[in-house]
Amino acid sequence: MNACTYEIEIVYSSEVNLYARLEKQNYSKYNRKCIDGRITGCGNCVGYCQYSEHPGYLTKELRKQHNCINKNCFYYVAKPKRRSV
User: Fold this and answer.
1) Among positive and negative, which fits the CA dihedral 56, 80, 46, 42?
2) Judging by beta carbons within 10 Å of its beta carbon (0-12, 13-18, 19+), is residue 19 exposed, middle or buried?
3) Half-sphere exposure of 60 toward its Cβ, with a 13 Å CA cutoff?
C-alpha cells in the first residue's frame, strides 16, 4: 500500500514541477495570457495548454469549451491544488 501512495506522490510532484516551470516562463507575477489572447489573473487559471497552435493558460470556461478533461488531452496541464498542512 505504501508503494501505491508513493507513486501517486511522484506523479503529483512532477505535475507541480511542470506547472511551476510554466509559471516561471511567464514574465508577469499575477497576470496570465489565456489561449484566446485575453489576460486574466493567476487565480482564475485552472490549467495550461501546451499545444503549439494556441499555448496559454485556461480558465474554467475555456477548459470546458475545449473539453480538455473529457478528451483526456495530452497537452493539458492541470494547476495543482494546494495542500493544506
Assistant:
1) negative
2) middle
3) 2
pLDDT, tens only, 30-79: 888 899 989 888 889 999 998 888 889 999 999 999 998 888 888 998 88
d(CA 7, CA 13): 10
Single-letter amino acid, residue 38: R
DSSP secondary structure of the chain: -HHHHHHHHHHHHHHHHHHHHHHHHSSSSSEEEBTTS-EEEGGGEEEEE--TTS-EEEEHHHHHHHTTTTTT-TTEEEPPPPPP-
Question: Distance between CA atoms of 50 and 6, rounded to whole angstroms?
Answer: 27
